[in-house]
Each structure stands twice: as structure tokens, then as C-alpha cells.
Amino acid sequence: MEKDAIKNSTDEVLEARKARRDLKIELISFFVLGILLGITLKSEAVKKITIGYNDYKVKTAIDDYNVSQLKADMIEQAQKEAMEEQETTETEQNVEEAQE
After folding, report:
1. Percent of the chain at pLDDT above 90?
2. Phi and psi angles of residue 46, each rounded to the nearest 5 degrees, phi first
3. How far apart are CA 18 and CA 12, in angstroms?
4. Both ends of the chain: CA-CA distance in Å?
5. Residue 45: φ, ψ to 5°
6. Distances in Å between the alpha carbon of 94 and those of 15, 90, 97?
7. Per-residue pLDDT at 60 exceeds 90
8. Are 88 and 96 in contact (CB under 8 A)?
9. Which of 66, 62, 63, 64 minimizes the C-alpha distance to 74?
């Protein structure tokens, strides 16, 4: 009986130590994987993201918009549409009057 109790207690102690060791191994592996992932992400980001002294090397796309011209074009287009709509309603009214 005493041998079984001692054996059980030593087994429990060994299992606790094994669980603690497994936890340490898992944490270390997560740490190493995190470092490797960070290095990979940084090396890929360096290829695509430019901040700072290399800005002059980046080709800029010419996307100049003249907001005033866009606004004037939109107003002109709206006026044309309004005039066309007014003309169509006038012709429809004239046709209806002619039919009466």
C-alpha cells in the first residue's frame, strides 16, 4: 500500500513537471515563431512600403483633379439635362393639345 501511494505521488510529481516543461517548450516555440513571422513581415514590407529618405525615388502617379472645372462641368451637364427634360415635356404638352 505504501509503495503504491509513493508511486502515485511520484507519478503525479513527474506529470506536473512534464506539464510545466511542455508549457515552457510551447511558449519558447511561440516566441521563436513570432520572431520569424516578424522578420518575414518586415522584409516584405521593406520591399513595398517606402517612408522617409527614399520618398524621392517613388514614382508618383499624376492624378490631378481640378475641382472647379469638375463642378462647372457638372453644373453645365445638369442644366443641359434640365433643358432637355423641359423640351420633352413641352413637346408632349403640344402633342396632347393638338390631339384635343
Report:
1. 36
2. -60, -35
3. 10
4. 118
5. -70, -35
6. 99, 6, 5
7. no
8. no
9. 66
DSSP 59: P
Position of cell 457638372?
A: 74
Reported as half-sphere exposure (CB side, CA atoms, 13 A), residue 84 has a value of 6
The set of residues, in sequence order, having a beta carbon less than 8 Å from that of 93 and lying 6+ positions away, is none
Give the range with max mean pLDDT: 10-14, 23-27, 47-51, 90-94: 23-27
> Residue 7 has what pLDDT?
67
The DSSP output letter for 54 is: T
26 is written with which cell numbers? 510551447
Residue 13 · residue 21 · CB < 8 Å: no
For the record, the C-alpha cell of 84 comes out as: 432637355
Q: Where are the domains of the chain?
A: 1-53, 63-100
Is the separation of the CB atoms in 57 and 50 below 8 Å?
yes
